[in-house]
Amino acid sequence: MQGAMARRNSSVDEAERVQVQLGINLGDIILDGDDIDGDDIFGDGVNVAARLEATAEPGGICVSGTVCEHVRNKVNAEF
User: Fold this and answer.
1) 29-77 pLDDT, tens digit each
2) 22 in helix, strand or coil?
3) What is the per-residue DSSP string for 44-66?
4) What's the angle, vertex CA 12, arms to CA 10 and CA 14, rounded to 5?
5) Which of 1, 16, 40, 52 could form a disulfide with 32 if both were Cys (CB 3.0 to 4.6 A apart)?
6) What is the per-residue pLDDT for 26?
7) HEC states along 3-20?
8) Residue 9, number of CB atoms within 10 A of its CB
9) Cα(25)–Cα(53) distance, integer angstroms
10) What residue segments make up the domains of the chain, in order of their start?
């Protein structure tokens, strides 16, 4: 997602660029309701991801230690 957004941003004026911050965590969640539209998801897993998102730089990704441990040496990324 971040790569696609960076490619998009490279071809538009600065005023039209979108910078997305991502926070990724692994943890339990609670779904409230039948449809999963993002408004009905609660729990520590979501709360931690939201805090991580706030610490990510624009255009960046911040992952929890748990995520880092699970994906280290399994994905082509630096942590």
Assistant:
1) 888 776 666 568 888 999 999 999 999 998 899 999 999 999 988 988 8
2) strand
3) HHHHHHHHHHHHSPTT-EEE-HH
4) 90
5) 40
6) 94
7) HHHHHHHHCCCHHHCCCC
8) 16
9) 10
10) 21-79
